[in-house]
Structures are given as structure tokens and as C-alpha cells.
Amino acid sequence: SLSLGSLSHPHARPSIMSTTNFKRPRTDLPHDPCFISLDSPTLEQEAVQLVCRVKKDWKIENVTTARCTDGITNVIVKCMLKQEGDVSPRVLLVRIYGRKTECLIDRERELSNFLLFYKYHLGPPLYATYTNGYVYGYLEGDACTPEELTLPVVYKGVAQRLAQMHKIPCPADCKPSVFDTIDRWVAEAPKFFEDEAKHKTLVDLNIPEALKQLEVVRSHMKDLPSVVVMSHNDLLCKNIIYCKETADVNFIDYEYATYNVRGFDIGNHFNEYAGIDNPNFSLYPSKDYQYTFLRHYLAEYLNVKENEVSNQELDTLYAETNKCALVSHFFWGIWAVIQSANSTIKFDFIGYANLRFAEFRKHFDEYLAL
Predict the structure, then answer these.
(1) Could you write out the three-class secondary structure of the chain?
(2) C-beta of residue 286 within 8 angstroms of C-beta of residue 151
(3) Average pLDDT, the chain
(4) Which of 327, 11, 363, 361 is nearest to 183 (CA)?
(5) Cα separation, 242 vs 148, whole angstroms
(6) What are phi and psi for residue 310, nearest 5 degrees?
(7) 10-24, 78-92, 317-331, range with the lowest pLDDT
(8) What's phi and psi for 16, nearest 5 deg?
(9) Is 266 in contact with 292 (CB distance < 8 Å)?
(10) Could you say which of 175, 264, 269, 317 has the lowest number of CB atoms within 10 Å?
């Protein structure tokens, strides 16, 4: 089995990046020219200094820090200001980009997404950018565990929050991005590894053959009445924040957010029920569970009562969701192949790619028949 060890998820990439790799996003936010190196022994102190430049009323001596372990593709430093008389500390987060993430992530789009979700009360505020990251607000709660995803209060909250995100107005001519992204990643993916074992796994993946199967999925999806929405595209459990005190559910990390068919967001989320350490894809939700989730989602999306959601609407979205779950396996499989060439962290990315392509092939006939 594949273990992530101390990592929060295979998406995590805590490593160094050259300042020349970054392009300053076009926003009206304050921008600090500093660069925080991920191998710096004073990383947390540098994050505090940055926050105190952004928030002039914060004093360095009153700020404590904690390194978040739930970051995805980044390192996150939690900065907490506790002053006399405060019941609880004020909190800001500093995100530091991982190595070569620009190969996979459009950082300008990520920040545009951040501002968009905040506008619609679906995300925290963004306070400033700096050379290799940004400073933003904190959402109360904790990242979900795989076990918590199956709690009725959580999965209903996820379904409703996802529907709210999907109701953000989109341009009339917007198109789903997932296949264009896959095409680009396939072109960028390595064709050879010097490491013999890694190269053998790459050959065994037989990506050209999987691409032929993906074309079949793509042709099937053209016949579906899919709705194109603003999608998160990466709803693993660690990107879902659940506050037990208020029962609020929120989403974080918008690196991969863009327009997509709504079934991709849902099917991708269902794939993530496999968990983080030692992924177990047999935990993929049952049909009955999916219908309950989809009923919550459609009631919120259509602004109707749950008993007013039709069986036809449920059947249609169920078929789209599971076909998109196939696409999700290919998406993260080819992503992991690229990571295996670029990432410096100790993780078997090519092994993770093997897991995802195996699931793609395992369920190909089953989901395509829906």
C-alpha cells in the first residue's frame, strides 16, 4: 500500500523555488517584494515580519506562529496576535508556494479565484501578495478527516457549499477546462526517467492507451446535459474546513479552481473519500449515499425543497458524476507523473500515479455504462 507518511496529501510540495519563476499577479492588493525561502531556518520569523508590514497595528513581540501541516502544494504559517484584553487571538495565514508549482498552477488565476470567492462570501479575505505567496484570512474550524466526510452534517454542508459555489455567475461562453488541462499536462509529462524502477512504472502506466480510453469518456460526456460552473476541482478532505461549534463548512485552496462541468467537482470529491494515508478507493460512496448527497446539492442549486428534486435530475447528475470520477483519476494520475519529475519531497509520486490509473481502468466499463 502507498503511505504518505508525515505528508498531509500527495499534493503537498514543501520545497524551494527560485524567485525568477514567479510572475506578480495583477491585483490591486498591496504587494511586498520579499521572498521567503522554504529552506530558511527563520521562515516563521520572516512570515511574522511580513504580516506586521501588512498589518501596521500588529507588533512582532505579540505574534506567535504555528506551521500548518494541512497545506496543499504550499507551506502555510499561521500567525496569531494576542494582545491584552483579547478573548481570542487575531489570526492571519501566510502561504508560501512550493517548488515548480507554476508548471501546474496559474497563480494569477488562483488569486482572481480567491477574490471572487470572497466576493460571494465563499472564502476568506486576501490582504496582500508577496514574491512567492500571499497573506490571507483565517476560517474557523479544522480540516476534515476522511471519517468526518461521512457525517451527515458534514456531507450535507459540503453538498450545499458546493452548490453555492456553482451558482456563481459564469460568462455565457465559458467552457469546461478539464480536458484542455489534461492535454497540456500530457504534453508536459516526462517520457523517460533515469531511475530504472520509476521508468518501468511509467512504461507500465501505458498512458497512450489510457488516452484512447479517455477520448471515449470525452465523447460520452458530450451527450450529457452538463452544466458548466465555477468549480473548485480539488475537494479532498484537507481542503474542507469544518467548524464543530457552528456546523459551518467552508472550502480552502483555490489553485485548481476554474470552469468545469459540475459533475467533475462532485466525482472528484467522491474519489477523495479514499483518504490521504494509504488511499482506499473501496470507500468510494455507494449509489444510495451519492443520491442523498446529490439531493442535498440539487435542492440548494435549484433553490427548491429536497422532495421537489426529480428522479430524472438525480439520475442525470449521478451518471455525469461517475463518468467525471473517471476523468478525475486520469487528471490526478498525469499530475502525479509530472510531480514525480519535479518534486523534491520524499514521496512515491509515480506509485500514486499508478494507483489513479489503475482506478481509471478498473471502473472504466462500469461508469461508462451509466
Answers:
(1) CCCCCCCCCCCCCCCCCCHHHCCCCCCCCCEECCCCCCCCCCHHHHHHHHHHHHCCCCCHHHEEEEEECCCCCEEEEEEEECCCCCCCCEEEEEEEECCCHHHCCCHHHHHHHHHHHHHCCCCCCEEEEECCEEEEECCCCEECCCCHHHCHHHHHHHHHHHHHHHCCCCCCCCCCCHHHHHHHHHHHCCCCCCCHHHHHHHHHHCHHHHHHHHHHHHHHHCCCCCCEEEECCCCCHHHEEEECCCCEEEECCCCCCEEEEHHHHHHHHHHHHHCCCCCCHHHCCCHHHHHHHHHHHHHHHHCCCHHHCCHHHHHHHHHHHHHHHHHHHHHHHHHHHHHHHHCCCCCCHHHHHHHHHHHHHHCHHHHHCC
(2) no
(3) 89
(4) 327
(5) 9
(6) -80, 155
(7) 10-24
(8) -90, 150
(9) no
(10) 175
Residue 352: exposed, middle, or buried by beta-carbon count in 10 A (0-12, 13-18, 19+)? buried
C-alpha cell of residue 171:
460568462
Terminal C-alpha separation, the chain = 30
- pTM to 2 decimals? 0.87
**C-alpha grid cell, residue 10:** 500527495
Apex CA 292: angle with CA 289 and CA 293, to 5°? 90
In the numeric block, which cell numbers belong to residue 37?
525561502
pLDDT tens string 233-288: 999 999 999 999 999 999 999 989 999 999 999 999 999 999 877 899 999 999 99
